[in-house]
Amino acid sequence: MKFRCERDVLADALATAGRAATGRTGTLPVLSGLRLELVGDKLTVTGTDLELTIQLETEVGGERDGAVVLPARLSSDIVRSLSPGKVEVSVDAEDVSISGGRSQFTVRPLSIDDYPRLASPASTAVTLPTAEVGEALRQVVRAASTDESRVVLTGVLLTAEADGLRMVATDSYRLAVRDLPGASALGADQKVLVPGRALSELARLVGNAPELTLRLGEREATFEVGSTRLTTRLIEGEFPDYRRLIPPTHPNKLTVSRDALLEAIRRVKILARDATPIRLQMTADSLRLSAITQDVGNAVEEIDAVLEGTEMTIAFNPEFLNAGVEAVGGDEVTLETQDAARPAVLRAVGRTDYLYLLMPVRVS
Asked: What domains, with CATH codes, occur in the chain?
């Protein structure tokens, strides 16, 4: 195999596919590598850990067809380190040569015979609105758990609703729900649980792509964005009944500037060490944020706000609160509460397609 390619194009391809390659070699060391296959001027780069696969195609100057498996991290670092311009990759019987400018590296490939054969994606495909899906992913995936001891909570639930598609994620401390009206990706009453890690990678890929295609199989989901294909195994298990977590009514509603609230949280949480909660004291015309850390100090900031309901003080984990305010978007946000011990709901003023529910923290 032999081809030439612009350094940045090859570096981006290796980095993208490399995010699916595993750093844990275990019983299959070859999974720490990337499979490169050249046919004519089309180079296909694949990375997988058997749970997540990212495969992309790019145009290169092909000279000799072939395939090879390169160590993912090493090859990516080498290509990124080269001078801007053309890079040449050449494979002989035992080594792979990577050169650019006046630099040349030689790398030992991994066994291509050990690289797993990947199944073809499902034939049935649906097209989703890329811009809305990208925004929904950024809003919802952040609420998924990263604790592998509760695998179900590391997933994002995709479920069919009467008017479209709904995405839901929770780590048991917070809950994010986003509706995509008109997006018909699932059959009636169908639902699937997609790993949050895979959807985080999909959010990176979506960018400004004009189109996103979804192919659902029995045990895997494949997303196609341009010349990149991401395939992930679906999670088996029953997602929690999230609907019962959402209070039907909230007697108290605070409206505040989103930017002002984000800035206040950013400053006050400097003193919120070791997950010290931020207290929100709500009055008729203001919101007072404070954090008190023993033996360190305290921070207080007051911003304008409008409260409909009863004055109260409620406390939240600062990182979870900040993530929620970032996610809802809009110029103004509302914080809907019942009391200091029950879940609160963040929304953007004028939007009903997204909510971020947050469990309060008990403070003395």
From this structure: 2-114 (3.10.150.10), 126-244 (3.10.150.10), 247-358 (3.10.150.10)
